[in-house]
Amino acid sequence: MRSLLISSACAASLMLALTPAASAADVDYRPEPAGLSWYVSIFGGWSLPDDLDIDVIGLSSTDLSGSIDLDSGFMAGIAAGGRFTPWLRADGELSGHWHDFSGEVEFDRSSGLPLSYDLDGDVNALFVLANLWIDVPVGEMIRPYIGGGAGVGRLDADFSTTAGESVVDDSDWGFAYQLGAGIAFDLTPNMVVDVGYRFKAINAELGVDEAAFAASDTDADYRSHNVLLGLRFEF
Q: How far is CA 105 from CA 37, 108, 174, 218, in A?
């Protein structure tokens, strides 16, 4: 009888010792190491641009600067890349942004009174970026991430006065970058829903109509805040 009690006490102690470890294993998710895998993603969403800052250069005696209040628009894109570890992935991205504009723009002059124009037009931005993303697996289905990328961007602007006089009708390639974060949700082992935010920017130099400004070029800085929804297919 005494031996039976001692054996039962030892068995109970062993069960108590193993129970916390098992519970911790259930809560503390640790992904298994994986080799290189590939993915393709498509995404789209709402794009809210900052004011398009314009600095007119090439004037003989006066500098002009102003801001164009672009309308919110939409963005869409595609990316393809690879996952190196459960925490790290990289991809190449091609994405576009589209905005309209209509309203009065006031250009400040370094000498003299400001100039005002009633303009109509649109601005389109194309991004070609190489990105690096850091995933943080906090569960079996949820992965917050943060990262960004750099590359080139094409800014295409077409503005004219309400009377039909062309002011800017040009496009240019310039340095581009983005910063972003979001949360990925695993629908299946190979399909992921991505809800994210991106800040994107391009610096370009556009030609202006000499009849409007008597100038050669203008520096234009495009910046936008973007909320996107995407699907990522991993294989």
A: 50, 10, 24, 15
Q: Please indicate, yes or no, if residue 187 is contained in any of the structural domains.
A: yes
In the chain the beta strands, taken as DSSP E runs, fall at 37-49, 52-57, 64-68, 73-83, 88-109, 115-135, 142-161, 166-188, 191-207, 217-234
Cβ atoms within 10 A of the Cβ of 56, count? Answer: 24
At 205, which CATH number? 2.40.160.20
Q: How far apart are CA 67 and CA 59, in angstroms?
A: 18
Q: Which structural domain, as residue segments, surrounds residue 218? A: 35-234
Digit-coded pLDDT (tens) for 195-222: 999 999 999 888 776 555 655 567 788 9
- Number of domains comprising the chain: 1
d(CA 177, CA 74): 18
Specify the DSSP class assigned to residue 162: T
Q: Flag whether 22 is in a domain.
A: no
Q: Is the overall model pTM greater than 0.70, yes or no?
A: yes
In a domain, 81, yes or no: yes
Q: What is the pLDDT of residues 137-191, one digit of tens each?
A: 888 889 999 999 999 999 999 988 877 777 788 899 999 999 999 999 999 989 9
Query: 93 near 76, Cβ under 8 Å?
Result: no
